[in-house]
Amino acid sequence: MPSYLLTLIIFILTYAVIALGEIPWARIDRTGAALAGAVAMVVSGALSESAAEHAIDFHTIALLLGMMIVVANLRLSGAFAFFARAMLSRAQSGFGMLAMTVAASGILAAFFINDVVCLALTPMIIDAAEIADVDPIPLLLGLATASNIGSAATITGNPQNMIVAGFAHLGYASFAIHLAPAAIIGLVADYIVIAAVYRRSLGATRTPADTAPRTIRVNRPLMIKSSIVTLGALAMFIAGYPTHLVAMSAGVILLFTRRIKPARVYRLIDWTMLAMFTGLFIVVAGFETTGFQAEVVNLVGVQRLTHPVTLTVVVAILSNVVSNVPAVLLFRPLYPMLGGNRAIAMLIASASTYAGNLTVVGSIANLIVIEQARLRKINVTFFDYLRVGVPITLITLAINTAFLTLWP
């Protein structure tokens, strides 16, 4: 079999499993598929061991690992729950609780990984809804969608932003200046759509339940230390220091503690995600050797593909077929062919993020919220999500495309 064809088959099989989520009879998931594909690329001769090693973007891996350590410490300190309760306690109605939910999740997701924000805030949102006797479904939808939207604002908001910033060499401040305004407008649109769809349940007069709020365990010394380190890291990000070095430095500083066993921090790090990224870097590098991407770009035409609307649609579709991180990695070798400019990179990052709101399976953050709600006997159906996800996705993609077109 020609090496070109074998490499293409390895790539297709790897991305097929990523699109499906798993192969039931083989018990292999996305991470396993990425690692298997990476090994196959080397064993088949598509890449040498040295080329495979160079294909891995260790700066992105370091940035993600460092932020995971920082976020783990914030979670263990109770900082996320404390922040969420402080905001939700100011709400006076169902609409007010929705506004606070959207604001809290959007703000936190702008600086920390959106999946973790959803993991930390979902129980708190459900508890607040029970106490206030408010329909929890619109609040949970607001949490999921707003965390996706807010995460588009900065490099540290989600993994795909980190990947794009890595291969496009984007600075933290420049990234935020260009994408944060659209994200802020998107959060407002998010609130309006959900409030309109659920206006009856949110506006209903209810009697607050006579239930004591769940106690928040706050490790005050750890929360103060983690907050100071986090603010220092964000300041250094904005100042232009290398993001991967800043993130790892912040993470390492927080590992020096007498109060928290390191094993508790390590348990909160998503090692499978890091392994999947490592494998996908190699798989995509192997696919690049076929030259197939260049042929597609030449066939479609660079000018046509780089049109903001066309590129947005392509990225959005791919993100919902194979998930946003694998989709973004496909654009890594294409980026120089598409002009290699900042506007293209930012559109790829933001469009892949906003596309995650289209359906329940469009983003891991969505699935985290839905699954945690199910464990609390709250059923958020596929249709519940779709009726707000579709308009929110279309509106935010339109806002983002228009903004980046006017201010490339």
Short descriptors:
single chain, 408 residues, mainly alpha, two-stranded antiparallel sheet, 22 helices
Numbering strands along the chain, what is their spatial order in the largest sheet? 1-2
Structural class: mainly alpha
Q: Determine the N-to-C terminus distance.
A: 45 Å
- The portion of residues assigned to helices is over 70%
What does the largest sheet look like?
2 strands, antiparallel
Number of alpha- plus pi-helical segments: 22
* Helix and strand element order: HEEHHHHHHHHHHHHHHHHHHHHH
Morphology call: globular
Q: How much strand?
A: under 5%
Low-pLDDT sequence parts: none
Radius of gyration: 21 Å
Report the average pLDDT across residues: 87
Number of DSSP strand runs: 2
Describe the protein in words:
It is a single chain. The protein is an all-alpha fold and 408 residues long. It is 75% helix and 1% strand. The protein has 22 helices and two strands. It has a two-stranded antiparallel ribbon with strand order 1-2. Strand 1 and strand 2 form a beta hairpin. The longest helix is centred in the middle third of the chain and has 26 residues. The chain is globular, with a radius of gyration of 21 Å.
